[in-house]
Amino acid sequence: MNATIGLEKLLRSCEPQLHGSDCVFCTLSAEQLPLLAGQCLLLVSERDGYSAILPRELAEREGIPVDAPLCQITLRQRGGPVLPGLLAALAGELDGARISARITSTPRGHHLFVPQAQAQDTLMLLRGIGNRAHYC
């Protein structure tokens, strides 16, 4: 099974979920980590510090410099094997629609963080890919 067919079947079997609140990409210091780690939507330890995605309201309240607001869209995968190339196919579809996204996967699903202004376009694209699976 190629990654494009896998992507279409994945999107046919799940409804992309747009989370209600805005989030932001930012960096955290080691001192901020104990206070904020449990509230991060995504946290990555890097050589020179911590990169995080936080609820926008929390970052603003804490005075953390942030990037433009993002929206989180989750695709829940119901069991089955992880298909090689699935995220590359998804990234290719998003790139073709000129949608910038940060994508990560967990055992419970795939999470897209897209610019707030592109959230609805992203949902329409994901639903359209899922609809194509009916014709494969």
Give the topology, please.
Layout: H1 3-13, E1 17-18, E2 23-28, H2 33-36, E3 42-46, E4 49-55, H3 56-61, E5 70-76, H4 86-96, E6 102-106, E7 109-115, H5 119-132
Characterise this structure.
The chain folds into two domains: 85 residues, VC0802-like, CATH 3.30.2130; 41 residues, no CATH class. It has five helices and seven strands. A four-stranded antiparallel beta sheet has the order 1-5-7-6, with helices on one face. The longest helix is centred in the C-terminal third of the chain and has 14 residues. It starts with a helix and ends with a helix.
Percent of residues in helices: 25-40%
CATH class category name of the largest domain: Alpha Beta
CATH architecture of the largest domain: 2-Layer Sandwich
Output the strand order for the largest sheet. 1-5-7-6
- Main beta sheet: 4 strands, antiparallel
Number of helices: 5
* Global outline: elongated
The overall number of domains is: 2
Q: Remind me, CATH topology of the largest domain?
A: VC0802-like
Listing every helix as H and every strand as E from the N terminus to the C terminus, the arrangement reads: HEEHEEHEHEEH
Q: CATH superfamily of the largest domain, called what?
A: VC0802-like
Number of strands: 7
Distance N to C terminus: 12 Å
Mean pLDDT score, rounded?
A: 84
| Estimated radius of gyration | 16 Å
What structural class results from the helix and strand content?
A: alpha+beta
Q: What percentage of the residues does DSSP assign to strands (E)?
A: 25-35%
Q: Residue ranges: pLDDT <50 for 5 or more in a row? A: none
